[in-house]
Design brief:
Order of helices and strands: HHEEEHEEEEEE
Number of strands: 9
Helix content: 10-25%
Radius of gyration: 17 Å
Distance between the termini: 25 Å
Shape: globular
Strand order of the largest sheet: 1-2-3-6-5-4
Length: 177
């Protein structure tokens, strides 16, 4: 569905805004795969693979994702919106905020950086859209509202993510980042 299609023209104003936002933003959403070697007492060293989402931060090859997506990874790769796979290096991580910055060598067509805004101006009740790559599939979109601001979330590993934005939008495994 693209602006100008008959289906698009029949959608209500809110749906048109969400559809247009998806078309504009989704090229910035990237698929991240991390690979590591884990030790099993029964099998010895076994490969481990994880996936998540990320977004192009700038036109210099920097990508933002979650720390838990790339933690302890030996290799990281990024799949761009059009399907190109690139090797990525981890530039830095922040486990407290569950953030990681990656860097890739720029592809011929470059990256489409996501336009960022100031989160200090958010309000509980505002609409929110989450675009990601759950389960390693192509980009998906979920919607909801901001339920709370400044939350601290306990992770499965016992850590804490601070200053989180709570939403009721569905965030599936692999959609984080």
């Amino acid at each position: 569905m693209l602006p100008g299609d008959d289906v698009f023209a029949q959608a209500d104003a809110h749906d048109q805004i969400v559809a247009t936002l998806y078309q504009r933003v989704s090229p910035s959403v990237l698929h991240i795969t991390s690979r590591a070697q884990a030790f099993s007492p029964f099998y010895g060293v076994v490969p481990r693979e994880g996936t998540g989402s990320g977004f192009a931060y700038d036109d210099q090859g920097h990508i933002v994702t979650n720390n838990h997506v790339v933690a302890n990874a030996n290799e990281v790769s990024v799949v761009l919106a059009e399907g190109t796979t690139l090797d990525a290096g981890v530039v830095g991580t922040d486990p407290y905020y569950d953030l990681a910055v990656l860097r890739v060598d720029l592809p011929p067509n470059g990256l489409t950086p996501l336009e960022l805004r100031d989160s200090a101006n958010l309000l509980v009740g505002q609409s929110v859209v989450a675009i990601g790559n759950p389960f390693g599939l192509d980009r998906t979109l979920t919607t909801g509202v901001i339920s709370a601001l400044g939350r601290q979330i306990q992770t499965e590993q016992g850590g804490v993510i601070g200053e989180a934005i709570q939403t009721d939008a569905a965030i599936n495994p692999g959609n984080s980042g």
